[in-house]
């Protein structure tokens, strides 16, 4: 498996010199709001034809406020290059964290925002921080590490830094215990090292997992069974401009299966006109797509068989919290031949 490099939205400069897939455009299309509006309408006419879950054409009439918001999203995506949150090569961390947050919420009833930055800084074995990684390796790290800390304790900085071990799970107490053991109480008593006595309960808001499982490769039915029970970390090809410029509707645009981006499949459904789709959480901010999410066509045929649109079914995995009702439900669902077609 190749590490996901998490491609940037750096297509604007190159596209004028290379044949573009999907809706072609040049830098002149980005020069003014009028030209951007024309580009946006060309894009909508090609890709926003599916009905929304609640009815109404995705490319149909909208309120002025919503229409302006969607145009602004498209325009920002078109002009952007590489400074979005989650686009520094750390998509694998966002994908893994989304899956862990999801299974923890299902198992405990508590939604805890977890630290992608801990993975970027500290999971330096098989993963490579902002230079790419894999979600399976992240799950392995979280289990071996004894859990993962919270976003508030170890906030995201969009750059890779030295692992702050004092912020890791059990980090504060373990860190100072080792300081005492190897440096000595004398140095502490002299004031050269100041421990935060009393030791805080560093694990009180941390989340643990018991392992992970891979979804059978190139099997959208197996992926559907997994997603029916919990969010699943998936890899896709996201380098095409059609995907990067997505702002609404069910995405059916052109993409291959050269996996370069980690996201999380969090649900699925069917539009009123019968188009099946995955609900996918991205890491490019709430202003991208449908408030940070994309609906991707489900069951799309491809030259690679059942790999799914953009290769969504090729490398999927999910974390496990053993003994929970969720884990038992997932095991039972894996043995069922039929899963509900909508969540």
UniProtKB/TrEMBL annotation:
GO biological process annotation, one example: proteolysis
Family note: Belongs to the peptidase C1 family.
Annotated Peptidase C1A papain C-terminal domain residues: 78-320
Keyword Transferase attributed: no
Annotated signal peptide: 1-22
InterPro entries the record matches: Papain-like_cys_pep_sf, Pept_asp_AS, Pept_his_AS, Peptidase_C1A, Peptidase_C1A_C, Peptidase_C1A_papain-like
Keywords tagged on the record: Disulfide bond, Signal
Source organism of the structure: Oryza brachyantha (malo sina)
Lineage of origin: Eukaryota, Viridiplantae, Streptophyta, Embryophyta, Tracheophyta
GO terms, molecular function: cysteine-type peptidase activity
Protein name (database record): Peptidase C1A papain C-terminal domain-containing protein
